[in-house]
Design goal:
The chain is an all-alpha fold and 57 residues long. The chain has 3 helices and no strands. It has a domain of 38 residues.
Length: 57
């Protein structure tokens, strides 16, 4: 995104993916406080996006 209000589609998708990874990690560790304190060794596994959601056209 730029200061002029224009939205670059590629940057938008990258930023959205980054946010979704954090949301997925938070959701997947909501019942596992040890994972949060452990330094996130399982970050890649727990931050994966759901694969059972259909994308919009």
């Amino acid at each position: 995104m730029t200061e002029h209000g224009a939205v670059d589609e590629v940057d938008y998708k990258i930023n959205l993916g980054h946010v979704m990874a954090h949301i997925s990690y938070a959701w997947n560790t909501r019942d596992d406080p040890d994972e949060l304190e452990g330094g996130g060794e399982r970050w890649a596994e727990l931050s994966r996006l759901p694969n059972d959601i259909q994308s919009l056209p």
